[in-house]
Amino acid sequence: MQGRGNSMRDTLGVLLAGGAGERLFPLTRDRAKPAVPFGGHYRIIDITLSNCINSGLRRVYILTQYKALSLNRHIREGWTGIVAQELGEFIEILPPMQRVSANWYMGTADAVYQNIYSIGAEQPKHVLILSGDHIYKMDYSKMLEHHVDSGADVTLATLPVRPDEVKRFGVVEVGKNGEVVGFLEKPTSTELRSPFNPEMVDASMGIYIFNTDVLLPALIKDSEDPDSKHDFGHNILPAILGQYKMTAYNFVDENKKETLYWRDVGTLDAYYDANMDVSSVSPMFNLYDASWPMRTRVRQYPPAKFVFGEPGRTGMAINSTISAGCIVSGAVVRNSVLSQDVRINSFSEVDSSIIFSHVDIGRHCRIKRAIIDRDVHIPEGTVIGYDQNEDRRNYFVTPSGLTVVARDYSLYESPVSPEFMRQG
């Protein structure tokens, strides 16, 4: 086995962060999906980038596209300075540059193909393809060691899922020797079972390691196919299956819990549930593990504070995550996540909610099961989350009854509206 530093030295990370994130609308109305806040203190992309740094991967391209201003600023101010540029290390943003195509990124494979010159300039032996919108902890150096030791040309990270969950995943057919022998894209059901766990099915995590001399020709060939979706799971991997040695790497969770933790927070309800877990008494996803630190862009705010302690006007937070700069002034916060610089004024109650940064909640408000976007002012006496019919008149409400309050929400209709689609 190679050491972590040595095994990653010849590896280039390519992090896909350009998705429009329609299912997270209206949170993605003005920002890219990987830039959506998570756990009060972080952005979603911080989780994958922290995995990179903790794995010893210190050359990373981040491919951005839709509404990337806040994401670009977050990366520039929070991440680019932590690597040693004089040693050839970098965390660098690559927007669509149209060097090989007049299009924006047309799929995951096309996004990588359009940056083929940037990849070739670094001359890596291996390319690690990652997604910037999942919540999990993984040591990529262990996956690379498996890739090298097995003599593979391509390695896929797989996650065990129950057979009744396969319709949400790309299913990987894995032989007894660990080699990949087939794919099923979101089947309604399957008789396949994992050689790692005979009660489970192997699902693709969208994490791939390629030998560079295999990846680049495959990308070029795919780019010339007019019928291709230019997607790794749909096109690249099936096209090269059988031509090269392709192995599966069963997910090793660095979260150190009894149950494996991997979450796709691509829907509002899934995003909400993952944040609620962070604020619970015993969260499944541990942000407090010093052996696997989570990094982010740190803004300079004063400490959080809680003021007033008289009957009926006590500033307190229970089972909640409270970020720097917050003031809970004679209000009660329960089971909630507050980002930076939030003020909740007297006699208000916030329960089971996610509050983004720079939100001001007036007096005598009652808020439950809501997500409130940044820079929103909630007027005195506002009630949210108690009457879905009333909420639908003013806000976005999911089928499960989760209320999302965005700035100027009335200007926008829904994630499938023509107006939204024109914005990308």
Folded structure, characterized:
- Helix content is 22%, strand content 27%.
- It is globular and about 70 Å long.
- The chain has a 7-stranded mixed β-sheet.
- Strand 2 and strand 3 form a beta hairpin.
- The chain is of the alpha/beta class and 424 residues long.
- It has 2 domains: 4-278, Spore Coat Polysaccharide Biosynthesis Protein SpsA, Chain A; 305-411, 3 Solenoid (UDP N-Acetylglucosamine Acyltransferase, domain 1), CATH 2.160.10.10.
Question: Which terms summarize this structure?
Answer:
Spore Coat Polysaccharide Biosynthesis Protein SpsA, Chain A; seven-stranded mixed β-sheet; globular; disordered N terminus; UDP N-Acetylglucosamine Acyltransferase, domain 1; 22% helix; single chain; 424 residues; 2 domains; six-stranded mixed β-sheet; disordered C terminus; alpha/beta; 11 helices
